[in-house]
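Just wondering, can you check both lines?
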Amino acid sequence: MLFPFKKNKINYIYNYYKSTAFNIIKARFIKGGVLFKTSKEIIKLINSNFSTFNPISDAEATIYNLDFIIKEGEKFNIFLARFLSTIAPL
C-alpha cells in the first residue's frame, strides 16, 4: 500500500503541488499539523480555484476526439446526457 494512512497521502499531495496551487493549499496547513481530513478535500479546493479557461474550445476538442463515442454496454440515454453536457458551452 502506497499510503497506509490518510495523513501520508495528504502530505504527499502537499509536497507535490508547486507555485499557485501550492499557495492555495499552504494557507490551510499549520505547523505540525494538517487542516484537511482527506486528500479529496485538497483536490476539491484546487479544482474550485482552477476552472476551464476556454470551455468552448474544450468542448470542441472533446467532440472531435475519436474516443468520444458510445462505450460498450453504455445505454443511449447515458451517452446522450454525456454528449449534451459536453456541447452545452457551444
